[in-house]
Amino acid sequence: MQRRPTSSAFDPCLSSEHEMPAPANPYAQALRSVCADVERACAKSGRRPQEVRVVAVTKYVDNLALAPLLAAGIRDFGENRWQQAREKLASPYARQATWHFIGHLQSNKAGKVASVFDWIHSIDSQHVAALVSRAAEQHGRTVNGLIQVNVAGEASKSGVPPEQVRPLAEALIRLPGLRLRGLMTIAPATDDPESVRPVFRELARLLRDLQAKLGVEGLKELSMGMSNDFGVAVEEGATIVRIGRRLVLPGG
Ligand SMILES: *Cc1c(COP(=O)(O)O)cnc(C)c1O
User: Does the Cβ of 245 fall within 6 Å of ligand 1?
Assistant: First the structure.
């Protein structure tokens, strides 16, 4: 094979890459399959598929996956660790996406996360929320916030217990850099998604309660449902599903 002269500009039309057929984008197929399940769950529960935002959880892949994920039509990306997220956010492709922070947020990362992420799904204290709000204001932006609720009371999970949702929400709506948009939960791991339906139903009930008590505009999001349980979550009213393995590890 001939080497390209290094002095001249690379001409894409002369590239030998054209001789190979473009491989099919595996994420496009995975996305179609996830969307078909979302549509089925919507049909079952009398909802419209446009009410459900699919967030691709990219924690399993590196930043090289961003371009093909975008090419597949995915625009919402979720990350649960700042260290991993910062690499992807440094990619030039990152600007085409909306970024969701979905992991436990430590106080010492709150400022950094608030400076770049568009949504934070894991607000679970007034202290962290105040840090997020202050950093967001300093960067001239507003971050969409969701309160993480530990509905099932699992010791291993973060999030506030249901009875603390309202007092925390009342504090959050006074913060200028944070816009309270709804609630998030992670259901207990299970092989039988039917068994966690009550968890999703309870989160939906907590949101209706907040809506009635607070009357805040735009407070309507339910971030619930992952690869193994999002069908049931959508039936129970999820407006945001966070899909990792099923979407970003197709066939894996
Ligand atoms: C990893 C993760 C997901 C995605 O999980 P999958 O089972 O791979 O779909 C969703 N939400 C949170 C908070 C996560 O950490």
Answer: yes
